[in-house]
């Protein structure tokens, strides 16, 4: 099991647009395993590469007993919307109602470069949208209405984890995945 530290709110990597994956190699498969192991241990419903300090467009998810991943996602969203509770492993302990599309069709690739299509509604749709937002440097608190956003920002400032420095990552100088961004 390879559980990695999760980057917390305030870490600049969480606000950067992640780069598309171009190499579907062993390093990508290791990253997907690290994401899956860390997400499972947390536990969480999803985890995006930037949350481990890796600025690449890949995320994992575990919803309704189904575990998977998606590389370089492209989303088509339903017009129907849903409101529901949402949290984030990078903002531990905080949950707020957030408006999302009710359904999603996500196209991308698996870790081997094979095309993948994931269709989902409700929680799976919410998770896929949340994790794709991470790849665009967007956090769920950015999608809250102004009153809830103020409450969330106050809770973040008061959280015991607020202001913690990002973890120091030791990596090989040849690695592109483990490099802290």
From TrEMBL:
Active site, renumbered: 131
Binding residue positions for Fe cation: 88, 130, 134
Pfam families assigned to the protein according to its UniProt record, in alphabetical order: Pep_deformylase
Highest taxon in the source lineage: Bacteria
Q: Which reaction does it catalyse?
A: N-terminal N-formyl-L-methionyl-[peptide] + H2O = N-terminal L-methionyl-[peptide] + formate
How is the cofactor bound, as the UniProt entry phrases it? Binds 1 Fe(2+) ion.
What PANTHER family does its record include?
Answer: PEPTIDE DEFORMYLASE (PTHR10458), PEPTIDE DEFORMYLASE, MITOCHONDRIAL (PTHR10458:SF2)
Q: What is this protein called?
A: Peptide deformylase
Species the sequence originates in: Streptomyces thermolineatus
Gene from which the chain derives = def_2
